[in-house]
Amino acid sequence: MSSRRPLRRRVVAGAALGAGAALAAGWAAQHRLATRTVVSDQDLEAEGLVLPDDVVHHVVEADDGGRIHVVERGRGTPLVLLHGFMLSSATWVHQFQDLADHHRVIAVDLRGHGQSEPGADGFSARRADRGAPRGAAVQPRSPGIRRMADDVRSVLEALDVEHAVVVGHSMGGMVALQLVPEMPSAELHRRVAGLVLVSTTAGPFSRVPGYARMARAAGPASSLALSLAGRAGVTALPAQDLRWWVTRTGFGADAPRPQIRFVERLHTSTAPATLAQLLPSLAMFDVSHAIGTVDVPVLVVVGSHDRLTPPRHARRMAAALAQAQLVELPRCGHMPMLERRREFSRLLDEFASKVG
Known about the structure:
Helix content is 46%, strand content 14%. The protein is α/β, with parallel strands linked by helices. Helix 3 (93-99) links the parallel strand 3 and strand 4 (103-108). The chain is globular and about 50 Å long.
């Protein structure tokens, strides 16, 4: 028996050394790959990831003193573009190039993102009464989403936008789903001709029993931890190699490197306070009970390889909406506006022509 123990120790030690060597080799390989994906401004320009020089910039004042930055180009049927979490209006760079000949392309920096600044309310939902909502979409547990929906409503008013197609990507889709049921019918049909919901969900993110209870507890705790870390000077974003891999998860298999680095830059330019304050609202977002009241045409777009909001969310929304068309893009991830630029822009153009 005693003679077997040294053998076992040697086997265990050998296995540990082998595992360590494998991990080291794996780390070295991923580090080399991440390092090779460094791109220059020239690479981004060659990929078309630079806004046209002739875009027009607006600043819309929110009711709490916030400043909402808006970028606009072109004339025609308005397309109001709402980006996802930790992104900005620059997410729609290709659509500014592809669609402005026939459409008024308007992209909003949601508060706390891009060049938009939160006001005194931050991401709370305090707002003067603007008319009774048509549906039961009020989200007391997702105040940040409702606050951003109010900002978008202010943008539509300030820029006199009528009969627009509102396009929401990821978190922007949640904002659109919050916005539409809360607008009085007359205002809705004057302002909004249709919705395009891209890589998003009506909630909840999970249907595992107890998810809502867990999210209620974990969301504020995560927010507090991130806020304290920010005050201590600790970044909320991972190290450079890990950042690349985290961003890479949002793309399908065919995404070129400049697209990934472009999105990573948008992530790193978002204020840590935005991340901390919005997490609870994202975790608790759920308007699945109200989307049946959406009475404008809806196009639902999702990538078959979307790991962040998998296609089951899109299918569930399309089934619940009264006037919905579902399009699944093969081998596409969470970023169709970049990964499937031509096809995605064509879908927007055709949908806007049909409803606008």
